[in-house]
Amino acid sequence: MAEFHYEKGDDGIAIITWDMPGKSMNVMTFDGLRELDQHVDTALADDSVRGVIITSGKKDFAGGMDLNALARMRDEAGENPAEGIFNGIMDIHRLLRKIELAGMDPKTKKGGKPIVAALPGTAAGIGFELPLACHRIIAADNPKAKLGLPEILVGLFPGAGGATRVPRKIGLMAAAPIIMEGRMQPPAKMKGIGLIDDVVPADKLIDAAKEWINGAKDADLVKPWDQKGYKFPGGAPYHPAGFQMFVGAAVMIHGKTQGVYPAARALLAAIYEGAIVPFDTALKVEARWFTKVLLTPSTSSMIRSLFLNKQALEKGAVRPKGVDDQRVQKLGVLGAGMMGAGIAYVAALAGIDVTLIDATQEAADRGKAHAEGILDGGIKRKKVTPEKKEQVLARINATTDYAALEGADLIIEAVFEDPAVKAEVTKKAEAVIPESCIYASNTSTLPITELAKASARPDQFIGIHFFSPVHKMNLVEIIKGKETGDRAVAKALDFVRQIRKTPIVVNDARFFYANRCIIPYINEGVRMIREGVEPALIEHAAQQFGMPVGPLQLTDETSIDLGVKIAKATKAAMGDAYPAADADEVLFKLFDEGRLGRKANAGFYEYDDKGKRTRLWPGLRENWPPLTEQPPVEDVKLRLALVQALEAVRALEENVLMDIREGDVGAILGWGFAPWSGGPFSWLDLLGAEQAVATCERLAETYGERFNPPALLRDLAEKGESFYGRFAPGEEKAA
Ligand code: NAD
């Protein structure tokens, strides 16, 4: 069935409408490209056509390239994948260039047909690169519309001309947030930046496009870069101003990415090299760099985790089959502290009625005020309207009265981390809520199976574990207790979908999944302090591996008293098997000195009066003098990376994790595991099991038994297999 439709009007204007059958959002496929190509040919060859409008039959224009198709491109590119991919991309460039030149005489630049992009809503990726090749871009003033090029966020760059056209149109500085940070913008903003031409009322979109076509002259169709004497805005690299700008951009990108994201480097190279050659050669340069990025193994891993599998999980890939719709109508939240208030806010924002309970009315009101604070921040940034704020707040009923929970279909408990307090509120709530209501705890450390003992309906008892701050962190860990039934899992998943976060489902075990992996990361960093590794080396090595924050900064953020509390509880529970005693000496010393982390304005770091981190605390080097011979930075990186990844493997071996896709997506969203790698399992696959085992053995010998390779990793190495080869469902084995 056709993805693009062609219709010629009596007024001599052809309208090409993008409208993929059976999809709510258009995405570009290879079939779609062929159809568009034919329609453009038809319009250009037909003398009775004076102009063309490219628009969409849906509320949005397009979401971008079909990344499934892109992921398959490499496998289907034949014996010489680089050549196959390069040729495929050049075909796209030829089509877009055909639109841009629109049949004009190559010498006189006359006689072309005006082609206008008319965008009813969001246009992303190639869905914005196609308009960029048109002669005019008109967008509807749709408040939900976002325009832009977000490819860099999944490890690619705008490779259908975006990297070449955007900086040539508006200069490198203005282009940076759009192409290097993937920031999507509303139409009015895009007009201000100069990337689109007009914003008109939605019902005037096609009329406005026609009007422009009717008045268009030959000169209006010639892009700046096709005119004589074109100059790169802000200066090309060999111009003194341009030189400075390019050097600055290279530094900025390296500072932000630490050199681990191949797409960011390739993008800058494509722009730099493209800027010193004619436009058509620049497109070729862009295609070569894009091919290189697509052929880099970590790119496939990143697309797989951050796009394909993340989306699959959000759509319910692990939802129990045969359970009917469990969307939440009325949510009860017990405990209006930091977490409970955050949960109440995100639920109310998603249109769910919330009863927010705390021990005193004052505490309950404080929880609701937290939501108000976030909404006020949104109003300041013009993201939220005052009406929206009122609507959201009206959905939150802050009270101390458990009777108000009547009719709730989901409860999330977020009271103090104390089994006795939790048991008490479970009983109180169950006395009021309907029998069918599902009950969840947001505990971060207490086993769900144990907490469920306080419940009269343990099959309806589950863990729904949020990360802090709730309104910013997108991962939600759902924990199945021994007796948790399918309906509870479905309820938790449907709720997470309602609030537009990404779920993973794991089995009950100490620290579940995310905290289980992040704690060893923190401990490894702290342990190195005691060994005499330079604190700055620890932090930099972590970031060079691709972690968003080093282990010492992370400890300061989550607070040192929390670390001490967890250490004490874990030690009590594990006895002699407790693995982190070396780290505790450092942690306890900071605790004793009142250096509790960011909240105390003192921790592993020093802070100024405004709470800004200023430098690593010199006391670290005084208390634990640095070794005269520091370990190689590679070893520090590997230690910090492997402690996390090996813990993830053990979680899989022990069936805490049931699906490696969840292990990878959860690691990136939950604690920021090097996103470039696609997650711990993808990273180990990139390394190769054999190499990973050899590295583990070397580190185990030098730094301790915790690096001993888990049996599963050894087995993969012996059999020459990979995690995704063995465990990924269906077609993803090939990715
Ligand atoms: P908090 O201390 O900020 O809030 C707890 C709230 O529960 C307080 O407002 C308190 O008044 C209320 N409360 C205590 N006893 C109550 C009772 N009997 N009835 C009604 N309300 C009562 O704590 P928090 O950080 O929001 O943590 C809450 C839960 O979430 C804990 O189980 C914690 O382990 C878990 N958690 C915390 C984080 C985090 O980063 N803080 C992350 C994930 C999970």
For the termini, the CA-CA separation is: 27 Å
Do you know the CATH architecture of the largest domain?
Alpha-Beta Complex
Strand order in space, largest sheet: 13-12-11-14-15-16-17-18
The general outline is globular
What is bound: which ligands?
A: nicotinamide-adenine-dinucleotide
Mean pLDDT: 95
Number of domains: 3
Relevant terms:
six-stranded mixed beta sheet, 2-enoyl-CoA Hydratase, Chain A, domain 1, binds nicotinamide-adenine-dinucleotide, alpha/beta, 30 helices, Rossmann fold, 735 residues, 12% strand, N-(1-d-carboxylethyl)-l-norvaline Dehydrogenase, domain 2
How does this structure look, described?
There is one protein chain. The protein has 735 residues and is α/β, with parallel strands linked by helices. It folds into three domains: 4-299, Alpha-Beta Complex (2-enoyl-CoA Hydratase, Chain A, domain 1); 330-511, NAD(P)-binding Rossmann-like Domain (Rossmann fold), CATH 3.40.50.720; 514-540 and 549-630, N-(1-d-carboxylethyl)-l-norvaline Dehydrogenase, domain 2, CATH 1.10.1040. The strands form five sheets. Strands 13-12-11-14-15-16-17-18 form an eight-stranded mixed β-sheet, sandwiched between helices. A hairpin with an 8-residue loop joins strand 16 (461-466) and strand 17. Helix 12 packs across helix 26 (660-671), helix 13 crosses helix 14 and helix 19 crosses helix 21 (551-558). The longest helix has 21 residues, at 81-101. The radius of gyration is 28 Å and the shape is globular. It starts with a strand and ends in an 8-residue tail after the last helix. The model has no long low-confidence stretch (mean pLDDT 95). It binds nicotinamide-adenine-dinucleotide (NAD). Nicotinamide-adenine-dinucleotide binds at residues 334-340, 357-359, 363, 414-417, 421, 424-425, 442-444, 465-466, 468. Residues 334-340, 357-359, 363, 414-417, 421, 424-425, 442-444, 465-466, 468 line the site of nicotinamide-adenine-dinucleotide.
